[in-house]
Amino acid sequence: MHRQALAGLLAFTLFVVATGAVASDSLRVGNRVLVVGDSAATVTDLLGKPSHKSRRGGGQGKGRRGKRTRAAPGNAAPGEQWQYRRDGHVVVVTLVDGRVSDIDERSH
Q1: pLDDT in tens, 66-104
Q2: Is 3 helix (H, G, I), strand (E, B) or coil?
Q3: Domain boundaries, the chain
Q4: Higher confidence at residue 19 or residue 99?
Q5: Per DSSP, what are the bridge partners of residue 32?
Q6: How many CB atoms lie within 10 A of CB 44?
Q7: pLDDT attached to residue 108
Q8: Closest CA to 43 of 107, 106, 87, 101
Q9: pLDDT at position 27 over 90
Q10: Residue 54 and residue 5: Cα distance in Å, rounded?
Q11: DSSP 3-state of 56
Q12: Most exposed of 24, 27, 73, 83 (fewest Cβ within 10 Å)?
């Protein structure tokens, strides 16, 4: 491996470790595993009620006066983010159309 490539890989690894965020396709919960593609019902079954829910942009929604609004181009995919506190970490599960699309574990 070239020194520049090795240095780049090392810098990236250090950045990921320093930010304390780890995106994953799965999350171990006891003796079960939550994976991308699982339903919202499975998330609730494994992790319980989230401590916080938020909506992400994209698609169409209703504005202040009930009129349909469109999200600005370039916004994240529509969906919900459910936050859970677990073992000194915050786990953010992103759901799109009722299915897990991303699992992100962050240092508290």
Answers
A1: 544 444 444 456 799 999 999 889 999 999 999 999 999
A2: helix
A3: 20-107
A4: 99
A5: 29
A6: 12
A7: 66
A8: 101
A9: yes
A10: 39
A11: strand
A12: 73
Using CB atoms within 10 Å of the CB of residue 42, give its burial: 0 to 12 exposed, 13 to 18 middle, 19+ buried.
Answer: middle
Query: Above 60 in pLDDT, residue 1?
Result: no
- Architecture label for domain 20-107: 2-Layer Sandwich (3.30)
Residues 2, 7, 10, 12, CA torsion sign:
negative
Those residues with Cβ within 8 angstroms of residue 50's Cβ, 6 or more apart along the chain or in another chain: 82, 83, 84, 93
- How far apart are the C-alpha atoms of 45 and 58, rounded to whole Å? 27
**Residue for token pair 């459910």:** 82
Do 20 and 100 touch, CB atoms closer than 8 A?
no
DSSP per-residue codes, 42-91: HHHHHH-S-SEEEEE--SEEE-TTS-EEEPPTTPPPSEEEEEEEETTEEE
| Tokens, residue 75 | 């916004």
Distance (Å, whole) CA 37 – CA 68? 29
Six token digits for residue 73: 């181009």
